[in-house]
Amino acid sequence: MSRTNGSSSAARANQTTASRLGVVVVDPILTARAGTRLLVESQQDMEVLGEAAWADEGLQAVRRIRRRGRVAVLVSLGLTGEYDAFWLIREIRERCPHNVILAFGVSPARIAISRALFVGADGYLDSSTEPEEFLDGVRRALEGQVVLTGLPLDCLGPIAEGVERQCDEPPLTSREREVLSIAAEGLTAREIGVRLGGAERTVTTHLAHIYGKLGVGGRVEAITEAARAGLVTVGWVGDDDRRLIPAGA
Q1: What is the pLDDT of residue 241?
Q2: Architecture of domain 2-166
Q3: Which architecture does CATH list for 170-249?
């Protein structure tokens, strides 16, 4: 009798666990990752199945999960380097297509959101939104909806245009990324041209194309947007860091 009751209790426990929505959190910031874990685990219908600080570790955590379906992988757009957020989203989409992938962050560049959607994310959640809205976004995504939670309405059009643009061409060409990386050093258009062995007018043309693609009006904003989107690596760019760069164009 007791053995039967024990088996029934274990079966109910396994059924309850299997019915919960699984979440994997990949975020390089420890406190942010811990906060997301606590938020998710405060919900009776959710559980954290894994977490990681780096993209390659995140991929391993996802591949260890045996569950098929009802799993959302939250990928922070703060993942940078060779294995960045976009690499991870692409790898999960190719290797574990049954999982839902949600990019998240705090007010990232619109082009970063467009790029995340383009490489395979099912939606985006802004970390600064209300906890209930954030969790509702996870639930709706697991129901098959495309979610863009916490974004102002006037951002939706540019984000959609950004996805379409990336279908036609890369966000920035290798030459444009090179020009922008050098521009971040504070060089004028003439000095950039000298370093690259080209004309000043060619550099200003590159910069104009870059501004148009990123939807910005100047060099500082372009560098900041491109760095946040993972298109260039610039050490000084951060959420609260705006360093003036001499305008040479």
Answers
A1: 41
A2: 3-Layer(aba) Sandwich (3.40)
A3: Orthogonal Bundle (1.10)
